[in-house]
Amino acid sequence: MRQARDVIREESEVLHLTDKQIKEIMSRLHNDLVKGLGKDTHANSIVKCWITYIQDLPNGKERGKFLALDLGGTNFRVLIINLGANHFDMQSKIYAIPNHIMTGSGVALFDHIAECLANFMKEHDVYAERLALGFTFSFPLQQLGLTKGILQRWTKGFSCSGVVGEDVVQGLKDAIARRGDVQIDICAIQNDTTGTLMSCAWKNHNCKIGLIVGTGSNACYVEKTENCELFDGEPGKPDLLINTEWGAFGDDGALDFVRTEFDREVDNNSINKGKQIQEKMISGMYMGELVRLALVKLTKMGLLFGGRGSDLLFQRGSFYTKYVSEIESDKPGDFTSCMEVLEELGLSHASEADMAAVRHVCECVSRRAAHLVSAGIACLLNKMNEPRVTVGIDGSVYRFHPHFHTLMCEKIAQLVRPGIQFDPMLSEDGSGRGAALVAAVACRQSSTVA
Ligand code: BGC
Fold first, then answer.
1. In this structure, which topology does domain 50-204+428-441 adopt according to CATH?
2. What sequence ranges are listed for the domain Hexokinase N-terminal (predicted)?
């Protein structure tokens, strides 16, 4: 008779991507990237490849005091950054964005941001100064310039009304003007992937890809300006940063051939159904829930926990993505963290075989995520076709998952064309420092122009 363990392994096979499937994913993504860049194909493209208007990477000579805002990850932060020769000094504060603000009106969101900013300036004795600000806004933006960006869609649980289709920089400026107490020059708006790239490029000039595997998933890269058919900025510079917004990959069904019933359920229960399909298979906002859905299925089949679940196990959102990292941090054969997680979920009746199975499901979900990210990065590396590229990386999943880095490095190495090398580089707070750097580079340019 087949053992429960074997059936569990068979059931989890749907989460395994074969090399053939991964290659197919790469080829589909490549086509989508090309469509996003093309003048005639962009309007109907799924992976938008937004132009960022960032053409100059930092040269290490940026100096000065800057404010930065970071909205779109797990937290909202305000930062003040002093860039000096070969060092920077940074102070920041995290502010909560309560759920009613995440899903309320855009005006309320921007008023909240402006209020946090003013309070922060008071606390840091710069209330009366006129400072330059870089705004990291990590949602799909159609940029019309360095300080103009039209929100295309909300992602990651945000749904503030009246913002989609509007210029986000203007929204913030209006909120600051409504208060009338602080003087701010918004010098640049940017994505967290571009911030990550910029903050790594400050130290390593070879950094040409920025990757986020956090609450959401996305990457940006340096493209040849001549390939960016929609670019209407200053001519003459060879490179341009492209924000791929690859989290939307699959929104037209391109990933249906590998999606599972768990992916479909996560999507059905989300506030942006049918959107961000690749992101929902990868990122921290969804990974724990994917594991939970698989565990629920196995429990109902009588293969786990003696067929006896718990209220929490059956409750949506109760299996946090950090549990996946914790469970996989246990040494092989040790289930200390796994046991703690299962106890928290009211599953203290789990046997050792159950714990091994839970770990197996976590591994399948996170390995698939790492392989999907690898497919994306390898696709970009092959497209760029440079002998050696540094990839700046940030995000909670990449930082805290014990094996994500290794899984990714191994897979990318298999998928890139022979002769292409890559160096992963952990970003030091790309969203914060990167925002200041983009602002600093923008100031550097405007002062050169003046
Ligand atoms: C957003 C991207 C962002 C990514 C990582 C996605 O949901 O659309 O703009 O870069 O999350 O934060």
1. Nucleotidyltransferase; domain 5 (3.30.420)
2. 11-202
